[in-house]
Write a structure and sequence with these properties.
The chain is α/β, with parallel strands linked by helices. It has helices spanning 39-42, 44-54, 81-91, 120-129, 142-145, 159-166, 197-209, 223-228, 239-251, 276-280, 290-293, 309-313, 316-321, 364-371, 376-380, 393-397, 405-422, 436-442, 447-460, 464-480, 488-496; strands at residues 2-11, 14-25, 30-34, 63-69, 102-104, 107-108, 114-115, 134-138, 152-156, 213-216, 267-268, 281-282, 287-288, 298-301, 323-328, 331-336, 340-345, 384-387. Strands 11-14-17-10-18 form a 5-stranded parallel β-sheet. The chain has a 4-stranded mixed β-sheet with strand order 1-2-4-3. A 3-stranded parallel β-sheet has the order 5-8-9, with helices on both faces. The mean pLDDT is 89.
Amino acid sequence: MFSSIKSMGVTGVGGYEVAVEVYISGGLPAFDIVGLPDAAVKEARERVRAAIKNSGFKFPVSRMTVNLAPADKKKAGTVYDLPMLVGILSAAGDIRTPGDKCAFIGELSLTGEVRPVAGALPMALAAQRAGVEHFFVPAENAREAAFADGLSVYPVKDVAQLTAHLSGETLIECAECPDLRGDDLPAPDFADVKGQENVKRAFEIAAAGGHNILIVGPPGAGKSMMAKRLPGILPDMSRDEMIETTEIHSVAGLTCAGQPIVFRRPFRAPHHTVSAAGLSGGGTTPRPGEISLAHNGVLFLDELPEFRRDALEVLRQPLEDGVVTVSRVAGTLTFPSRFMLVCAMNPCKCGWYGHPSGRCRCSVNDVRRYHSRISGPLLDRIDIIVEVPALDYEELKRKTPAESSAGIKKRVDAARRIQRERYAADGTMCNARIDSGEVRRVCAVSEEGEALMRAAFDSMHLSARSYDRILRVARTIADLAGSEGIESEHIAEAIQYRTYDLSVE
C-alpha cells in the first residue's frame, strides 16, 4: 500500500516542494522516516501515532516507511506531521487519497490538534509556484498563508475536521486574505521631539533617499528618540515589500494569528552585546539574523563603538549588496538584507566630550581609542554624519509644537515618487541604491557645485566611495527641493553631513 502526499519545506527564507511518500508493507511492525530528517522530524513518529489513535483511527500494525523527497535535502521542523498522518491514513485506506493539487503542512499534538508552524507564507508561495490549488494549514497560519494569490487556503483545527472535509462530510471554509490597511496603533511622532531642527532635517534627507546615517551627541540629547521615529516618515511598504518582509519574519517565527502580515517597516535595535552570528544569521540550520529582520526597514545600532568589532564588520557586505551570505556546515544560504542603517554614539566613553559643562574627564587618547573602535571602511559606508547638540532649557520649555511626522512624510513621499519615476527602467527604489555608473548619469553638478566638490575632495581627503555618497545625498536634497539639477547649495549641504571629524587633535 502506497500513497504520496504533497507538502512544503523551508530553506533560508524560501519554500520548496516536498513529497511525503508512505509505503505500508508486510513484516514486523516498524515506523521509519528517511530523507535526511532532523531530530524534530524523527520525533514525528510518536506524535503521528498518538494523533491517529486519539482521532478515532487504527494505527497500522505493519512495517511503514516514510520518505521525504527530495531525499538529498535536509528536512527540519515539525511541518511534516500533518502530511505524514494524511499519507498513512490514505495508504491504509481509511481516507480517500488527496489529489496532486492538494498540499498539507502542520504540527500535530498528541490529541490530534493541529498546531502552527514557522514559515507559512514562504511555503504558501512555494505551493503556488508548484501548481497547488488547495493548501491545508494550521488554523493560526491560515490568514498569513492566504496572502499568497491563487491558493485556496483551508484552516485546519484538528484531524477530525480535516478527515471530515476530505470525505466530503463537512467542508472547511477557505481563509480570507488579511486586511492590507494594517493596524491602528499610534506610531512615535517627530512632533514629540523638542528642537534639534538640523538633526530632523538630516533624518528627512536620509528617509527621502534611503541613506545611512550616524548621529553623535551626549546622553539625553534625543538620539534614540529620533531614531525610533524614522520608520514613521518612510514611505509605506508596497505589497511586494510586505511579502518579502513577512517571509523573513515568518521563518523567524515572529508572525502570529493576530498579526499575520508585516505592514509597517521593521525597526530592529539589537543590544550592543549581539554576536556576529546574531546580526548575520546562523544556527545549525541557518536562520535570519537582525540585519535580515530589518529588511525593507531600519537597523538601529545604539552606542555604536560598544559593538564587537567582528559584529560591525559583518555589516559591510549587506550595506553594499543588499544581501548577506551565511556559510555553515549545513550549507550556504543568502538572506535579503536591504535596510537603512542608523547609528548613534556618544562623543567619548563618558559621553560628555566637548560639552559646555566641562564634566568630561576623558583624555585625548581615551577619546581616540573610543573612536577607533569604528573602522574606516564602515564609516565610509555611512552617507550622513550629524552632531546632536545638548538641549538648553529654553528649547525644552518651548510650547510651540514641532512639525509632525505626517508633514515630513509628505515631502519624503514626494521625493521618493521623483526617484521611482527616474529609475523606473531598472527598478531602483531610491538614490542610495544607485550604482556608480548611474551616479554619473543622474548627478550632474553645476560649475559652482563642481568647484565645491573639488575643494572638499582635496581638503577632506575623500575616498571614491565617499565622493559618490556625497553626490547621492546631494541628489536627494535636490529632489526634496523639486530641482532637476544639483545646485551648489545642494552640494554644500551634502558636504556638511560629512564634515564631523571623529579624529581628535
